[in-house]
Amino acid sequence: MNRQELSSLWNLHQATSTIIVALLLGICGTTSAPVLAVELPAEAVMAALNDDQLFTPVIHRESAVTVYMLTHRVAPLQKGFYFVNDSMSADGRYLWFCCAWPPSLVKTLAVIDFEAREVRHFPETQFSAESPFVDVQTGEVYWCVGNGVWRRGPNPKDEASLVNELPAELVGGRKVDRLATHLTRSADGKEFFIDASVGLQHIFGSLPVDGGDFKLWWRFDRNYNHAQFSPTDPDEVLFAEENHSDPITGLRFPIINRMWLIRRGHAPRPVFTQHQVVTHEWWDADGKHLWCVRGNETWRVRAADGEVEKIPFPCHCWHSHSTRDGRLIVGDSNHRFYRGCASTVHFLDRDTGKVITLVENPERHDYAGRNYHIDPHPRFVGNERCVIFTTTVRGQVDLAIVPTARLVKETQPQNSPPN
Fold this sequence. Notes:
Elements: H1 3-28, H2 42-49, E1 55-59, E2 66-70, E3 77-79, E4 94-100, E5 107-113, E6 118-127, E7 133-134, E8 141-145, E9 148-152, E10 161-165, H3 168-171, E11 176-178, E12 191-198, E13 201-208, E14 215-220, E15 224-229, E16 236-241, E17 244-245, E18 252-253, E19 259-263, E20 269-270, E21 279-283, E22 289-294, E23 297-302, E24 308-312, E25 319-322, E26 328-333, E27 343-349, E28 354-361, H4 367-371, E29 379-381, E30 386-391, E31 398-403, H5 404-410
Antiparallel strand pairs: 1-2, 2-31, 3-4, 4-5, 5-6, 7-8, 8-9, 9-10, 11-12, 12-13, 13-14, 15-16, 16-19, 17-18, 19-20, 21-22, 22-23, 23-24, 25-26, 26-27, 27-28, 29-30, 30-31
């Protein structure tokens, strides 16, 4: 079966699965937001991308890849989510993104409605860290404020509501600097994982979405973050050892062993038996493997024993993200890291071995580059139908999107000449 046939079957499967979920939720009498029932046709997405009131196409001079920049502005600075979290609803209708108004360091959320061809900004969605999470089945967005998790829907009449918060007796008189690096939800949908920075402590635990009691998993006296629930096991979490700056002395302690796992009720354990300084990790869809980057390689790591499959790139790997089957990888690279550094976004088709460039981002060594975490962070979204990332190719901070099918087409072998 060729890739086009597989793609058609996958789209049919996704649409059917979403309808089944909607029916089951209706039978169970849920009072949550309505489940998105049908997938927005690819033609509707392309029609929105070709709407010059919303997007501007930019063609890379060498690869000839067309990337669409969101040029309808609701804020001076518009960027994508951190790459761990999907920002597009499964049906392809809603795409959430982050907004900022320099010099204010506050960020808010806006959404593109591809069906209505509208961009809506919601100023009440001021969030901390890179916390936003999208429920891909409903299009709702969740974010962190102080010691609480909030949510709202993508439509103008939807309202923000509190989901849950850390208990007052846990926080006390301390400041919550971070509730979650980036929210992830458990495989059974019942909890969000919290990797909070509270006073001098770093507190790990799970916060039920039904407003139930916070469950404490572990406490640390140094910075561990980037915690992510397993996509298949509600009792397992991946997290990272981070560079730690002591809040009293100002001394900095570097990463020694980056990737860790923790099971509910058990002590944390390192993924690797020998110290490894890798970066930018995420879960494989199978829940048995982890991904990360190191040097010019993207690694797929077996969680059980740390066995590594190394996928080389012709350039530096900064962040990467993969499709569910691991055959397509999108990533970014830089020659020297600093906030706002120049970068390149690229795409690898492992079946053909071809790598193509999507954009080359000029550096932003100004205030915006230093303060708003404008790394490209490319990621597959919308049931892997699109790739999104942050770009500076137009001299400002923009959200960019490109259909995955177009990237796959560009990485296929050219037709052989006739005999």
